[in-house]
Amino acid sequence: MTKNLLAKINEQKGKFSKGQRLIASFITEHYDKAAFMTASKLGNTVGVSESTVVRFATELGYEGYPQMQKAMQEMIRDKLTSVQRINVTQSHIGDGNVLEYILNKDIDKIRRTLDETSEKDFRNAVDAISRAKTIYIFAVRSSAALASFLGYYYSLIFENVKIISNYGETEIYEKLFRISEDDVIIGISFPRYSNAAIQAMTFAKRRGAKAIALTDSMSSPLVAVSDYVLIAKSDIASVVDSLVAPLSMINALIAATVLNLDASVKETFGTLENIWQEYDVYQNNRKDEPD
């Protein structure tokens, strides 16, 4: 996306009007700021009208300003520092209601996840997981919580599940060296993307394993090294990483896997329920009847 937008500006700069040259110059030098500006705010910043900004976007080949803004956001998706995220969040919320803002943003991310995820890739991923001899789940940093959640439930369903959420320089390959064409790796990474996740997925693919990416966009570096891609939207900029949509995708993945295996999973959970009851794993809310 970076090359596409800046290349378009460079190719057409000789045709720009004076106002359009001001917009082009600001975007080229400050696209990290422009990416979060409305068309009106960008126009005010450079001294042109909102309609000039919109026309500038369409002349570059975008359907409108929102599409050009999305292109700018893709340019910086994995480059924002923590301080920049805080500044952007502050500018968005201002003196508004933080709770309402964050929850509405999370609702929107789940809606966009439903719109953008490939149902075919989802079904193929579930089938590959169901057939796998060993399931490897790789995620580090804030995404490690997702790996832990998915790994917990898959470990109840399958015999061989390996969670890799801590790593050293050579530890990735030591934990993956047995992976083969009979196995599946689920790589989870969101901006700022983890180099370790990319390396793990690449190694697994070379060994013949099916690779499933859980990430935020088709421009994610995990896409190029994956057989199936599950898109779960995350915030371009937030004080913390929003894992609401990814967790919802994982819930769907677990549920689909259970339904895919059906009888064998029912038997497994029947056995587990007996064990949990025998050893009082869960609180029994039914009070004993008095003698």
Question: Please, could you describe this protein's structure?
Answer:
This protein is an alpha/beta fold and 291 residues long. The protein is 58% helix and 8% strand.
Q: Quick recap of the structure?
A:
The protein has 291 residues and is of the alpha/beta class. 58% of the residues lie in helices and 8% in strands. The longest helix has 19 residues, at 98-116.
List the helices and strands and how they pair.
Blueprint: H1 2-12, H2 18-34, H3 39-46, H4 50-59, H5 65-76, H6 82-93, H7 98-116, H8 119-131, E1 135-138, H9 144-157, E2 161-164, H10 171-176, E3 184-188, H11 195-206, E4 210-215, E5 228-231, H12 244-261, H13 263-278
Trace the largest sheet across and list its strands: 2-1-3-4-5
**If helices are DSSP runs of H or I spanning 4 or more residues, what is the number of helices?**
13
Sequence stretches where pLDDT stays below 50 over 5 or more residues:
none
Largest sheet: 5 strands, parallel
* SS content category: alpha/beta
What percentage of the residues does DSSP assign to strands (E)?
A: 5-15%
Q: How would you sum up the global shape?
A: elongated
Radius of gyration: 23 Å
**Separation, N- and C-terminal Cα atoms:** 73 Å
